[in-house]
Amino acid sequence: MALEVRPVASKRDLTTFIKLPWRLYRNEPNWVPPLISDRRRFLDRRKNPWFEHGEAQYFIAWRDGQPVGRITAQVDRLLNEFQDNRWGLFGFFECEDDPEAAAALFDAAEQWLRARGRDRMVGPMDFTMNDECGVLVEGWELEPIILTNWTPRYYPGLIESAGLEKAMDTLMWHLEISGRDRVHPSIWRVADRVESKYGITVRPMRKKDIHAEIDRFLEVYNEAWERNWGFSPLTETEVRHYAQTLKPILDENWAFVAEKDGETVGAALTVPDYNQVFKHMNGRILPFGWLQFLLRRKKIDRVRVFALGVKREWQHTGVAARFYELHFDSAEVTPQKQGEMGWILETNKSMNRAMEGMGGRVVRRYRLFEKLFDPDAEPSSPRPEPAVAVGEST
């Protein structure tokens, strides 16, 4: 049957793009449906502040009138400036086990990126490393924790068949946050002297002051992660957008700020695993999704350490150890007794050693891929832009 890849060109196309995973994953018990309303907002160029420094095109692969795959191609100018590179990115990749369709999707993304002067294609990133990224290469037997994805076993081979190669793996570590004897004793010794020796205090984030707290988090995040592979700094607008998104699920028991004489020196943002709730909502808040949310949120039994960082000049003080200690304190007063930390780059030896010291174990591995473009090949003419703005509200 004839295969065709077309840009998203209408509100109906955008709905097809968003809902394709429901068909692909209909028999996959470990897949957690995202909230459809959240995906619409995220893909809307007027609502997602990423579009202040990025541009993207969305593609759908059609076979005999049936959608069989999707992909985005995007250029992040902030990433390119910060990393001094000419990367192009791809994301939101979903596809049937169909090498022809996958190759056609990657070809469409490549041509769009080459026409914009990119020298390679890296991903998947939705839209950055700060968002969901990578495909599973280990850990398919587990349900994904919040803000991570689940992808089929055939995806790595399907992507490689389209000419992409491994660029980087990221790790998710499982931690039991009860039973302190699992943790190397040196971590507790270091944590105990953070305030007495260095005068650093660590306190919970204040939800009622969420915007100021997120500003403090941003101050740490953009410095502590700046040397990471693929890192793109968050803008103030993006952080405020994240604050509004995370506020409903933020628990003051699990988010901390470290301060020294009024200066923010570290921050840790951990969130309860609301995927345990979203799994039963099938992507919808109405008519009954809100009821599932209310009934199941008190049964959440694990957390995700989304980000834990310390400014470089304070990393010798043991602030990270103090954050770990406070997580154990929180586990004693909440239903959550376990969690996952990540993503952590496979090349980040210090963080991975710290996870080993905490008694952790790697339970899932995600892979990002890349394809370098042939500098001698001429890019084809860019495909026509869609009839409506990409990501237009519906």
From TrEMBL:
Residues 375-394 are annotated as: Disordered. GO terms for molecular function: acyltransferase activity, transferring groups other than amino-acyl groups. Residues 200-375 form the N-acetyltransferase domain. InterPro entries: Acyl_CoA_acyltransferase, BcerS-like, GNAT_dom. Coiled coil: none annotated. This is N-acetyltransferase domain-containing protein. PANTHER family: PROTEIN YGHO.
